[in-house]
Write a structure and sequence with these properties.
Layout lengths: L3 E8 L3 E3 L9 H4 L2 H13 E7 H10 L11 H12 L2 E4 L11 E3 L4 H10 L4 E5 L2 H9 L5 E7 L7 E2 L10 E8 L5 E7 L5
Parallel strand pairs: 1-6, 1-7, 3-4, 3-6, 4-5
Antiparallel strand pairs: 2-8, 7-10, 9-10
Amino acid sequence: MRKVMLWIGMSFDGFTSGVNEQLDWLVPYVTAPEGMTIFRRLRERCDTILLGRVNYEGFHGYWPPVKNDPKASPDDVDISRWLDEVPKVVFSRTLREVTWQNARLARGSAAEEVSALKRAPGKDILIQNSTRLAHSLLEAGLVDELNITVAPVVVGEGRLLFAGLANHTHLRLSELSRFDNGTVYVQYQVKPKNN
């Protein structure tokens, strides 16, 4: 069965974005060379990404032209090309269509769609940020691996990933590293409920 992996950055106090979804405080930390290496490794493991509406709109508005920007870094060009090519499943209650190449709207609920994707053949599935989507999939027990970069910054308010989860989620640490900029990367495997 395919794994569902979450790739997300957060502040030291647990916020994945500011009150207005802003990420300007996070970007310098997660785009460090060590973060780009980890993200490249995760991309190689997956052949599908899951996006919530906010990230879909933000990514679609930003990434497609980057591959043709002569001022873009090689890492950004690589990410732009990958995001164009990889199949994207978008979860939204308000969007009626998605226009980015290789993107489609989810057909059912997040739990139904992701359960079906996990049973289908293919590589692993990556949740790209998308805090609300990740939260609902954690609640449903459908996330198998957490890849979190913890930035050395306290934000104070914004969107929390784990707030309000009804179920205890037990984790097993599988990787830990420190970036030169003080960011900490942790990878946890989610333990099955019966363990």
